[in-house]
Fold this sequence. Notes:
Elements: E1 11-20, E2 23-31, E3 40-45, E4 51-53, E5 56-60, E6 63-69, E7 82-89, E8 95-97, E9 99-100, H1 112-116, E10 118-121, E11 127-134, E12 141-148, H2 160-182, E13 189-193, H3 202-213, E14 221-225, H4 238-248, E15 251-254, H5 259-262, E16 271-274, E17 308-310, H6 317-324, E18 331-332, H7 345-358, E19 367-371, H8 392-402, E20 404-408, E21 428-430, H9 437-441, E22 446-449, H10 454-459, E23 465-468, H11 472-478, H12 485-488, E24 492-494, H13 497-506, H14 513-521, H15 529-538
Parallel strand pairs: 1-9, 13-14, 13-15, 15-16, 16-17, 17-18, 19-20, 19-22, 20-21, 22-23, 23-24
Antiparallel strand pairs: 1-2, 2-6, 3-4, 3-7, 5-6, 7-8, 7-12, 10-11, 11-12
Helix pairs in contact: 2-4, 3-15
Amino acid sequence: MGESNIGISFSASIHEIEWERVKLKISGLIEGSVKNEKYTFSLKNEKTNTIIPIKQIGIKGHAFELIVNVTTIYENDRIPDGKWNVIISDSNNNERKVKLASNLKYNGKNAFDQQFSKDFKSGPKKFYKFHIEMNKKDSSIYFDVFFEHPKPKKAKKLTLKKRLANVREDMFDWIFNISKKLVKKNGKRVLFTSASRSEMGGNLGAVHDRLVERGLDKEYKLYQVFKSNIHSRSSWLDKFKLPFYLGIADYIFIEDFQPMVNKLEYDNKTEIIQLWHANGAFKTFGYSRLGKPASPVIDGFNHRIYTKAITSSKHVIPYYAEAFAMDEKNVIATGIPKTDIFFDEEYRRTTTEKIHNIYPQIKNADKVILFGPTFRGGGPKTAYYPMNKLDFESLAEYCRKHNAIAIFKMHFLVKNKLEIPEQYADIFIDATDYREINDILFVADVLITDYSSTVYEYSLLNKPMLFYAFDLEEYISARDFYDKFEDFVPGKIVRTFDDLIHSLEKEEYEFEKVELFRQKNFEFLNGGASDRVIDWIILNKQQSEI
């Protein structure tokens, strides 16, 4: 039933509008009976009358709050182009357009549409435009949504290199589709793959090794395909193995962005599980960064194929669902498999011995400082760290004064090489080529980082941290965080290298923040995350059974 029906005794008005990354939050008031009435909200296309239900609705008395995720609201995809009215409906399907309260109506130059509309960059000269407008006739609100595309260019003649690349892609797709068609799924094939590690490790290694320890490799066939790093080419054999395994696998485990996994069409029996290499939700990633450099494009397929993802705790489930453009019910707080080692005393002992053997100069040090920052730049092609922000001389002076060793573990994506002056070789160690930073955490007495998710793992060791955030404002502008950085990090923030050395000297770490951080960000503080991934996702056991 429509707007003109007589006898409809309810309406709704919007009083506040705000954006939280890709989520539009709208709150207001319902006028009319709310005692025995159940109201719903939706978007309705002006021309086609297509209805998109708004699923995230909170109603308390007369107050309501709506959350519209522009990347997933329409069948797990973006809102299609067109003009969409915001509609409130009662239990009898009577509907009214939602209107703007007087505080949000046009006010000269400060029109609300200019204030709240957003243009998301979605590729070269491409923008996904989400404009919020008011109908001047009745003060109702609508969304004017459209893609702005560049004019198509005349197709260039393909180079030999591009033609060969197309042939390789076609071959990859052909092998995948043939194997998917000819090999019947049996629920017993598990593939582990990554585009950024040369061998089993991290979350993938933790789950794989636990499967073997439990003897499940006798029941399940385990496959693996890795690549030495994200910049390298796959081996000739792996170009055939990967698409074949992807076609026959029942469970596909990844822990990073795996471009070769994203580009295919899977049947509905295939589980694709994102174990994500980072712990918790610190800096924004995936679709949470929509429109920022190196973010996914809204009309692309990156990440959208995952059937499951895992997190360290329940309170970050909404962030992961947002980042991967997936339903919250498919994000599971199992804990992070690679953190199981932090609850294994034998592993800690043997790993400490291994690190001491690799870097023997730390054995006699009174203090070991680990410097483990993240990268700057848009992604793998542009990742760097501003080495000029390191004052080797003052850090060396501190280390020699306190019989300390400093270990530098730069992010694996950083392309500009760390060059430690020869005169500091006795007290500085470059461990960048050692793949697993978690192993080095065991020997560190203090962690110096910036915006790296390593803080999650290190908090499990209950040791102090310093945050060298010399470019905080610039980083927030380029990358941003899910929570306010100053309130989130479990340690003292320093903005200059002099302040960093001062804090080391005075041991001013704000250490009391570590315990609060750990309690908030870990659902489980007893290990067992690998078992929960296996039991809940592969063996499909109910959580109550475990």
